[in-house]
Amino acid sequence: MRFKKIIWEEMNREYLQEQAAAAAAKMGSQASFQNSSDELRAAHELAAATAAAVAKSRKERKQKQDVNANPAQTAAETAYQMLIKKRLSSKINYDVLETLFAEKK
Predict the structure, then answer these.
(1) From which domain of life does this come (predicted)?
(2) Are residues 52 and 76 in the same domain?
(3) How many separate domains does the chain show?
(4) Is the pTM of this model over 0.90?
(5) pLDDT, position 103
């Protein structure tokens, strides 16, 4: 097990160095943030709160859309709804999609 660790660390030395540099940069920015003025600190907290509120409102809006969505009656409708949800609708030939899921009579 010890040899696996040594080999992994040797193969991923660059990644580990990047992670250490990122951690050092984060610690440095936090230290400088602690020495900053109250106004800057308040602005940073306000920005974080705003971002959280926007993310929450997007999530709530998506949940409401999902609840209000009508369940699909056929496989073609399901595929169509999925394509719209994934925003792939501009790349799809809907005539071919209809023939693919056409019910044989």
Answers:
(1) Eukaryota
(2) no
(3) 3
(4) no
(5) 64
